[in-house]
Structure formats: C-alpha cells, structure tokens
Amino acid sequence: MPSKSNLKTAVAAGALLLGFAACRHNENVINKIILSSPDRPRWIAPDVKQLPGDEQAKLIKYGRALVVNTSYYFGPKGVIAHKSNGLNCQNCHLSAGTKPFGNNFSLVAAGYPRFKERSGTTETIVKKVEDCFERSLDGQKIDSNSVEMKAFAAYLKWVGKNVKKRTKPIGSGIDEPFFLSRAADTVEGKRVYISKCQRCHGADGEGKLNSAGNAYVYPPVWGKHSYNIGASIYRLSKFAGYVKDNMPFGANYKKRQLTDAEAWDVAAFVNSRPRPFKNITGDWPKLATKPYDYPFGPYAEHLFSETQHKYGPFAPVKKYYEGLTKKK
Hints:
Distance between the termini: 61 Å
Number of helices: 14
Strand content: under 5%
Oligomer: single chain
Number of strands: 4
C-alpha cells in the first residue's frame, strides 16, 4: 500500500496532468461539448432541390451557378466578361458556401446591411460581392444592377434564410484554431505544405486548371492568379481556421487531418509567399478596430511588432485589442 504522503503526491500529480490535458484542449472532447450545446443550434443549409420552379427560384439557382463556376462567367475566358483571376467563389466558400466551417454564407442574410469597420461604412450584400471580386478574385466589380449581381444576392440571402439576426449557429463561417504559445513557423509550414498540400495545389502554389483551361479544379494559393493581400483569408486566423476544418481534400471539422499547429504553420508559409498587391491604405480607418492578426500597420499601439501581428503569438495581441473594444 502506498503511504499517505505518496498517495497525496500521486493525486496532486494526477490533477496536474489533468490540468495540463485541459489546457492542451482535447479537441475530441471539446467538439462533443460544442456540438451538443443546447444553447446554440447547428446550422444546416437549405436544400436547393426543394426550391420551386418560379422565377425567384431560377434566380437563386443562377446565383448558385455563379458561385460554383465564377470563372466560366467572369474569369479570363469568361462568357460574360473578364472580371476575375480565374478562381471560383466556391474555391474559398466550399460546397457553394454551404459546408459547415467551410467559410460558408450562413450569416450573410442576417448580417447585412451592416456597419463594417474595415471600410468605416454601412455595407450591403452587393458591396460584399464587390469586395470578393476585388480582393479574393483579384479582379474588378461587376455591374451592381446586372441580373448576375441580383442572382448572387438572391442566393446569399436564400442560403442564410433560416438564421436569426444576432445569432451564430454552430458551423457558421470559419472556426478560429486554438492559439499557439509561439509564432507560426513558415519553415514548419513549408514541410506541411509539401507533405499534405502540394499534390493538389502544386509545388509553386500554382493550382491545377480543368481540361478546358477556364477554371481551377484546385486553386492557386499564391502567385499572380491567387487572392491578393486585401483578401480576408490573408489574415492568418482565417486561413488557419479554414484549412484546419477543410484541408487536405476530404477533411471536415469532424474528421480533421491537420493539427492546430500544422494549420497555423502552413497558413504562415502560404501567406508568406508572393501574391497580387492591392491598395489597402483606406482599410480600417479606426486603428483600434483592426483585427489582432491584421498583417499591416499602422496600429493603435506600439507594443507588438508588425511581425507579431502577422505570425503571432496572438494571445496577448488579441487580449489587448479586446480591451480597446471594451473601452469604446
């Protein structure tokens, strides 16, 4: 039998180990807790097959087609116009913007119009689509009065039609990975990219075109045909959260193939590579509202370097900026 002192030591050590385990965030346990939460409904996208055959339904279906095959309509060989770099909206908004934690459109209908700190203005769904064309698709705005813009808006509203205002169901948007105690590592990220991403996205991040050469089966993740520096996914938290729950191909939030560390590191590597420029000097007119991981200064403080804002460690930066928000 162990002595009382040894027993106390063992109990204390066990408690300490449990504490460490909790701090390390056992993802399986946390996922079960989150997904069984009675306070937050799980988002389920509406089924396009249940749409009626009326004119509004046709507009919604056209909007979906534009999301899935954007390049066919507006790419370098677009049948309507050349307005984008050849990416499809679906390359970033998976399954036509309906995949849980796949950068989906669940919150668009309930969230717009809304005041956005990035522009310092109240924005509409039309402005959201325009931003995607100018940033993620590194292109130009399409006609805001066109039937295509009306179709985009109709589809985005329909996808999120069951979400109530000021709510965020489980599965919405992109999930933020757990923070690392260190900065994201581009060297480690390159190793992750080579072993788990390169086979689809290419050795030089160039992606893979379809047989017709008018759209990407696997999108370029850097280089002249990728998203520019003004895209939201150029922020590390967005990219890391996106790949954690969706990459490599076949992964989802229930069956991940990357650890949080791998997600942060590969995000750091990919976003360190060259890509198109965009003039973003007008973004975030109020410095205190910049996201903690916004990679370009100036900032509302001089406590953290631009490098830390870009690569982390992010916990102290986010805590500081949350304090600024509370003081508003």
